[in-house]
Design goal:
The structure holds 2 protein chains of 2 kinds.
Chain A lengths: L1 H20 L2 H26 L8 H18 L11 H19 L4 H18 L4 H4 L5 E2 L13 H23 L2 H18 L4 H27 L1 E2 L6 H14 L6 H19 L3 H15 L4 H9 L8 H28 L2 H7 L7 E3 L2 E3 L4 H32 L1
Antiparallel strand pairs in A: 1-2, 3-4
Helix pairs in contact in A: 2-7, 2-9, 2-10, 2-11, 3-4, 3-9, 4-9, 7-9, 8-9, 10-11, 10-12, 14-16
Chain B lengths: L3 E12 L2 E12 L3 E5 L6 H9 L6 E6 L2 E2 L5 H7 L1 E3 L12 H10 L16 H13 L15 H14 L4 E5 L7 H14 L4 E5 L3 H7 L2 E6 L2 E6 L1 H6 L1 H12 L1
Parallel strand pairs in B: 3-8, 3-9, 6-7, 7-8
Antiparallel strand pairs in B: 1-2, 1-4, 4-5, 9-10
Helix pairs in contact in B: 3-4, 3-5, 4-5, 5-6
Chain lengths: ~400, ~250
């Protein structure tokens, strides 16, 4: 208990100190990481705790964003709804739309539930461009953050603290919820809703309400994004937003409370860094998701916690480091192969070939010719060496464990 | 003479053209242990599903303590005071044993939409959970994950959860299915213990269990009741012998 408290305080202190430590661009990335973390935690209430996989959470995130921009324009950041309280508009629209959508979708479970959430979100996404008054068409709608409570809300630092405050508050509320009777019933809903019914509970009302709460907190995340970029465009309603939160949640670990937040923050950071470096960053994101699902099915945080609890035997730190090194070497090989392939098949390369011949391309500070043996031999050797090392360590560890038994 | 707690009146259920329950009339008296037996496919489970709200009757009525419950959904039937267990273990496998019982107890305290109290601080609920744990003899395993328990312990937990809503009538659907001889004896003993002073309706194939546990027995064949009586009467009934012999010959 004390350890947990110390960890929470340490993380909070670090988050509070970040603006002093980071550049403007990294602070911007941090704002996005916080928003993604809140969105994923809200999503995981439904998907991880209640066991209902939604494919349409972009709808509630997006509605929260649009409601906030409208509220910003309507109130001018003053009066009833000053700028710092704007996310309440997102929460309200999320709650209301979540009650409606939840009422219908929770009448079914599993695949059918997922299909209904997907259909509702796609319906909204298809409808949005036609409702110019509400969603602003192609251009979207924009607004300005107005000063309130003695803050300008002009600088990144101020918006960072605003987003941090809301994210911490909302995640704390969601954590508190897991300790209440309702929070425990939500787990029961995931484990066995049929049994819950025969214990006298109204499972449909329970499902509708947990859906609405998840949507409300997703709405707050959308509101924070709208506050951050001072605009909303119907691309926030796209399927990609729904899938990104889903992938983030599972990469972190849907069933552990802080897993989704950490997964989302990590993947947002990864996107921020890699999207400047390579055009293939979405491919890497997909590969990471596949590898996590195959080898760490409980998510990164879930698996780490399981190891700490002592599942899967004692951890040998040397073996862990060696495996990690092996994975890094193999990853370097994969990245090189993918990047070179991407370059050789790009339109730029096609244009360069107009001049004749097969020119070399640049990667990692060197030039690589398409038909030079080293160009392809190096990645292959790296991949083989890395995977070989991991396999070797795995076998040695397996033998050691056998010997102990 | 005790009162009639559960009354089935001309109860019928058909699935399409197939009549599974045919004109069942049965009176369960308060405080009795009533066993339902019959060959496979006689409609015992269907009858339980009808009473517990899983199926809606095609016609006829089911009265619990004077109130009509036929056609109500399972949650409402439970709240009227009738709880059931299932033939296939039906628990919250991923949660702890105590948590399973707590979910079962909480309903009676109206704690479905409660966002402000901590479950660990619900004194009366948790006291009841401790009491139930003792009754089903799982106190030592309170914090184990239910799905990791041995089979017979899971069955005990299932019975404990059925008991948790403090029902007027308990339905147990084959609580000893798949148990070894020792486990069956243990569970029979447990059921006798915890249903003292309550009304029990039980479906079970093990005749030794039935004849030691039941006050009265009803025999169901092809959806119809062919006999109801004390174990002694049932043992001597010619119709019952015929039905069971017919089953063995066929």
């Amino acid at each position: 208990m004390l350890k947990k408290l110390v960890a929470v305080i340490a993380v909070l202190a670090l988050l509070l100190a970040l603006p002093a430590l980071l550049s403007e661009s990294m602070l911007n990335a941090s704002v996005q990481m916080l928003i993604a973390a809140l969105f994923a935690t809200a999503f995981a209430l439904l998907c991880g705790q209640a066991g209902m996989l939604s494919f349409g959470h972009a709808a509630y995130f997006g509605l929260g964003a649009f409601a906030t921009v409208h509220a910003m324009n309507a109130f001018g950041g003053d009066g009833l709804l000053p700028t710092p309280l704007m996310p309440l508009a997102g929460a309200a629209i999320g709650l209301i739309s979540g009650l409606g959508a939840g009422y219908f979708s929770t009448q079914r479970t599993g695949t059918y539930f997922a299909m209904i959430t997907l259909a509702l979100a796609e319906l909204l996404h298809a409808l949005a461009p036609h409702l110019k008054e509400v969603f602003g068409g192609e251009a979207g709608i924009s607004s300005f953050r107005m000063p309130a409570w003695g803050f300008e809300f002009g600088s990144t630092i101020e918006i960072y603290y605003l987003v941090l405050g809301w994210t911490v508050l909302c995640i704390a509320l969601l954590w508190g919820l897991t300790l209440t009777p309702f929070g425990r019933l939500v787990l029961g809903l995931r484990e066995n809703s049929h049994r819950l019914k025969f214990l006298g509970y109204n499972t449909h009302a329970l499902g509708t309400f947990v859906f609405a709460l998840s949507a409300a907190f997703a709405g707050v995340a959308g509101a924070l994004q709208a506050l951050n970029i001072e605009a909303a465009n119907y691309v926030v309603l796209e399927t990609q937003v729904s899938t990104a939160v889903l992938l983030n949640t599972f990469i972190g670990g849907a069933k552990v409370f802080f897993g989704p937040a950490i997964g989302a923050a990590a993947m947002t950071f990864f996107g921020h860094v890699t999207s400047d470096l390579t055009r293939s960053w979405l491919l890497y994101q997909g590969i990471i998701f596949m590898l996590v699902m195959m080898y760490l099915p409980r998510g990164i945080v879930g698996e780490i916690l399981a190891r700490f609890r002592g599942e899967g035997g004692a951890v040998n730190p040397v073996a862990v480091l060696a495996r990690f090194a092996g994975i890094l070497v193999a990853a370097a090989g994969f990245v090189m192969a993918i990047e070179l392939t991407q370059r050789f098949f790009s339109t730029d390369y096609k244009a360069a070939r107009q001049a004749g011949g097969w020119p070399a391309v640049e990667f990692a500070g060197h030039m690589w010719a398409p038909f030079a043996p080293l160009t392809w031999a190096l990645p292959i050797v790296l991949i083989a060496a890395g995977l070989g090392l991991v396999t070797f360590i795995n076998r040695r560890e397996a033998r050691r464990q056998e010997a102990q038994i | 003479m005790s009162r009639d707690i559960l009354v089935l009146d001309h109860l019928c259920k058909s699935f399409g053209p197939v009549e599974v329950t045919r004109d069942v009339n049965l009176v369960i008296r308060e405080g009795e242990r009533h066993a339902l037996i019959g060959p496979n496919g006689a409609g015992k489970s269907t009858l339980f599903h009808l009473i517990s709200g899983n199926y809606k009757p095609t016609s006829g009525s089911i009265r619990l303590d004077g109130d009509e419950i036929g056609g109500l959904d399972p949650a409402r039937v439970n709240r009227r005071g009738l709880a059931r267990s299932f033939q296939i273990t039906n628990i919250f496998s991923g949660l702890s044993v105590a948590e399973n019982l707590r979910l079962a107890v909480m309903r009676r305290y109206g704690l479905q939409f409660n966002f402000w109290r901590r479950v660990t601080h619900l004194r009366r609920v948790n006291a009841e959970v401790d009491d139930l744990l003792q009754k089903i003899r799982l106190t030592a395993k309170a914090r184990s994950i239910a799905g990791d328990l041995p089979y017979s312990d899971q069955r005990s937990l299932e019975i404990g959860m059925t008991l948790a809503s403090d029902p007027k009538v308990i339905l147990l659907d084959e609580p000893m299915a798949g148990m070894s001889h020792e486990e069956t004896e243990y569970t029979t003993d447990l059921i006798r213990d915890i249903t003292a002073g309550r009304t029990l309706m039980i479906v079970e194939h093990d005749m030794d269990v039935i004849f030691t546990l039941a006050d009265r027995i009803t025999v169901l064949v092809y959806g119809e009741i062919i006999a109801t009586g004390t174990p002694q009467q049932i043992r001597e009934s010619a119709r019952v012998k015929e039905a069971y012999l017919g089953e063995e010959a066929g």
